[in-house]
Amino acid sequence: MPFATVDDCRLYYEITGDTSKPPILQFGGSLFGRQNFGFVNDGFRERFHLISFDARGYGRSDAPLEPYPIEQRADDGAGLLDALGYDRALVHGTSMGGMVAIAFAAMHPERTIAACADCSLARCDVHRRTLFRSWRVMAETMPLDEVSDAITIQAVSADFVEEHPEVFENVRAIVGKNPLHTIRQACLAMEEMDLEALARTIRRPILFTNGTHDIMTPPRLAPSGFSAEDICKAVPEWARLHEFPTIGHADLLEVPDEAVRLVTAFFEEVISSKR
Predict the structure, then answer these.
(1) Nearest to residue 241, comparing CAs of 217, 225, 224?
(2) Residue 46: which of 268, 272, 270 has the closest Cα?
(3) Which of 19, 22, 47, 129 is most solvent-facing, going by the fewest CB within 10 Å?
(4) pLDDT the model gives residue 201
(5) Is residue 80 within 8 Å of 4, Cβ to Cβ?
(6) What domains can be seen in the chain, in order of their start residue?
(7) pLDDT value at residue 274
(8) Kind and range of the H or E element at 190?
(9) Which helix (H) or strand (E) holds 231?
(10) Whole-number Å distance between alpha carbons of 27 and 35
(11) pLDDT value for 177
């Protein structure tokens, strides 16, 4: 199995696709890890090759009993590129991974060709901070399958659930791979995160993709938060926002083909430009 040691932590990784094509470094979500991209990987491999990995605490990677802040996750991604011999990569993060993508683009601009921060934000408002705290409390007090089901119905629409009843078992299987410590630290990382100062320093092209009806990471937040829309206003020459108007949080699950087309077009636009 392929492992790389980054800052004394052994990370499991997979490189798939034609390595003569540009690389995408993927950051998965808070409870899903690298499996978050399962519905879009085949689409992205048509134009890119993929660097997928289990972040610290997830899957086959080491799970030290310590905090996992967003900035550390971004540094781990840069360390993985070092270990694998990549100078730069495209960056695609979804959900909490989108928050990591924001931090990565700001902290490691020399390693970032361009980034997509999917269904993400830079700082929670009170509503979202309370939501993620409720996940943490549920994980600490309830069976994990019940926690998984509660999060599933927050992520996808009622119609999608009824059209795809297998989604509950699929999500339970992925969430169940995580130690309780990892789930707790993921929630704490989102509750405590404040990436506004970093986001204002972004100087690499970054695309924000958010569902208009997302209750977890909407494109606009109450005043205490710092949203995708706020970042685009702060660095308009570098950031742009696309909204999926008919869905909530899980565009990679509900509209995977559209997500692939959109992100592919953005990455290819950046690659083909002299910017």
Answers:
(1) 217
(2) 268
(3) 19
(4) 98
(5) yes
(6) 3-272 (3.40.50.1820)
(7) 59
(8) helix 180-192
(9) helix 228-234
(10) 10
(11) 87
